[in-house]
Amino acid sequence: MALLHVDFFSDVLGMCMDMDVILPQQTSGQIGMEGKAGDGRYKTMYLLHGMSDDQTIWQRRTSIERYVSQLGIAVVMPTTHLAFYTDTTYGMKYWTYISQELPKICREFFPRMSDRKEDTLAAGLSMGGYGAWKLALRAPETFGAGASLSGALDIVEDYRRQTETPEGRKALFEGIFGSVEQLRGSDDEILALADGLAAVRPKEELPPLYAWCGTEDFLYEGNLKVWDHVKKLGYDLTCMDSEGDHQWKYWDAKIQDVLRWWLKTDLDLQ
Predict the structure, then answer these.
(1) Which residues pair with 242 in a beta bridge?
(2) How far does Cα 210 stand from its chain's mean position?
(3) Collapsed DSSP state (helix, strand, coil) of residue 270
(4) CB neighbours of 246 closer than 8 A, spacing ≥ 6?
(5) Coiled coil located at which positions (predicted)?
(6) Which of 46, 173, 252, 265 is the most exposed place for a label (fewest CB within 10 A)?
(7) Residue of 99, 92, 154 whose CA lies nearest to 122
(8) Tens-digit pLDDT profile for residues 165-220
(9) Inter-residue contact 193 to 138 (CB < 8 Å)
(10) What dihedral do alpha carbons 114, 119, 120, 121 form, nearest 10°?
(11) What is the spatial distance between Cα 149 and Cα 124, in angstroms, rounded to a whole number?
(12) Which one-letter DSSP state was computed for residue 118?
């Protein structure tokens, strides 16, 4: 595999941005790891970070490069700061950046990345889990599937939880989404997005979705609520829970399950 640290300029955001990119490489002489790179264009996973992190975190906390080495896929790990993958009310267009500009930039920089939605997955944890489902539901022409690990899928409830405590982040969340009333039912709410897409597409054209959340996670009840809702709408949802809270030892294991689900493989990625 090749690991690239990419600094570039975003016209949408008007500032320099960062992403780390894993690209397939055919190798045979590495100790303890085999690299594969197939013919044609690469399937690509956009792997999103959570609230406290940046583009380096999946490399620092998991073995993502090792897991994908035998799969022949590319992985894009962008930074999007603490903006919930949203065109914020304070004027920074992080949604436009992540859903439109970034895929275009990646495919210009790395022309062997596939531009087919069937070959493009959005995945992430916590805030990034919300972002991943949002990409699949709001930009399904680009992102053909979405995978959430411990995702903030019930974003209205998360907004309330984050802002109603004495040490809450009211100014931050209002700066991103506006008021909770503005958020509810908008294109930034997963429930509303799922409703809207299901209303205009037949079930067989809805993007497949994956989710996992630990039963001790503070986001667990919100996940159950959203999973039940999208299942009733007819989405192809693979969801599961197991013992666990909000930490990396679970996400390191579950990102392997995401890869097996998306690529329909039973490879041992350890």
Answers:
(1) 214
(2) 11
(3) coil
(4) 126, 150, 214, 217, 218, 219
(5) none
(6) 265
(7) 99
(8) 777 799 999 999 999 999 999 999 999 999 999 999 999 999 999 999 999 999 99
(9) yes
(10) -150
(11) 6
(12) G
Q: Do the Cβ atoms of 225 and 239 come closer than 8 Å?
A: no
Contact 48, 128 (CB under 8 A): yes
Distance (Å, whole) CA 144 – CA 107: 16
Indicate the residue type of 229.
Answer: H
Could you tell me which of 241, 253, 246 has the C-alpha nearest to residue 62?
Answer: 253
pTM over the 0.90 mark: yes
φ/ψ of 6, rounded to 5, equals -115, 120
Q: Calculate the CA 206 to chain-centre distance.
A: 17
11: closest CA among 78, 99, 97? 97
What pLDDT does residue 178 have? 96
Q: CA neighbours within 13 Å on the CB side: how many for 38? A: 13
pLDDT computed for residue 40 by the predictor: 86
**Residues written for the chain:** 270
What pLDDT is stored for residue 131 in this prediction?
98
Closest by alpha carbon to 259, among 219, 224, 217, 210? 210
CB atoms within 10 A of CB 242: 11
**237-242 sheet: strands from edge to edge:** 2-10, 15-23, 74-78, 44-48, 120-125, 145-149, 209-214, 237-242
Contact yes or no for 48/123 (Cβ under 8 A): yes
Beta-bridge partners for 52: none
Q: Read off the pLDDT band of 249 (50, 70, 90).
A: very high
DSSP 178: -
Asked if residue 129 lies in contact with residue 197, where contact means CB atoms within 8 angstroms, the answer is no
CA distances from 182 to 47, 89, 148, 175, 189 (A): 28, 11, 24, 12, 10
